[in-house]
Amino acid sequence: MATGPSFTRAVPDGDNRPRRVCDRCGFVDYVNPRIIVGSVAERDGKVLMCRRAIEPRSGFWTLPAGFLEEHEDLAAGARREAREEACAELEMGALLGVYTVPRISQVQLFFRARLVSEIAAGLESQEVGMFAWDDVPWDALAFPSVKWALDDWRATRALDAFAPFVRCAPDTLRPD
Amino acid sequence: MATGPSFTRAVPDGDNRPRRVCDRCGFVDYVNPRIIVGSVAERDGKVLMCRRAIEPRSGFWTLPAGFLEEHEDLAAGARREAREEACAELEMGALLGVYTVPRISQVQLFFRARLVSEIAAGLESQEVGMFAWDDVPWDALAFPSVKWALDDWRATRALDAFAPFVRCAPDTLRPD
Fold it and tell me: Which end of chain B, N or C, is less surrounded by CB atoms within 10 Å?
């Protein structure tokens, strides 16, 4: 039976920062920031949202989004997440925002999209729905970036071309 | 002495894709796409470039860029890379382009920047220089994305606000 890794922080040869190194097998666990891809998907002026069935923030509302996989393009990843979470097919549009959350080492890329299918709750969703702006469950959003993406979508909704929003969660920065 | 990890591909519990799992210690090596942050840094109409002193593509010319670290904001990472590779201080500007290279699972984010210091070769550079457009060493560029970033910089140079270029290396996509 494998016993599980046993990590100690140490600076590997040829590196200049401490990394997690396994005492048992010598593996260096280079941790890279993780990429989230997601969409604000519209049809008839309403936006696709999903109520989470998994932690973190189970029961709260989010946009279809998740971890980019290996060897995957950004738009393909965002489409896959919408399929998995809302059984939804999307036509991808412009890059809407790039949101960095240094505390948890995430870079989130959200795109505009058009919903072109029916929707239904996927395995990770309790329910899914299309929301007009005034009906968005503002008091039950899962993450700050959900509000950023919705706000940025609304601010640029009438524009064909625009500079996406580059945001960084301000309370989570380490000194430069 | 640690013997080094021994990985086998298997689908971990609660997952839906094969991942690398160490036979010795049970560690699951979740591989996430990696984020590169870089800059097209200008002063007096010339652009900062670095001739690489390390593999891959040692001896070829690149823009200051490298892996985003844990807990780091995008702009801070791009500034750090310019310091490490060219002893350069930058004032960061707009997001210029987002380039995905699925074959090697990289997402590269390039920013416009202004050089506000002297420059000198850092440890990873053989030499550094400021290049007018016609003097860029086009035949000795290290990576395709260096050309993309330079082209995108030139195309948007006169613009205060613009939609960044979202490119995906077309020959490296896996089926959606």
Answer: N
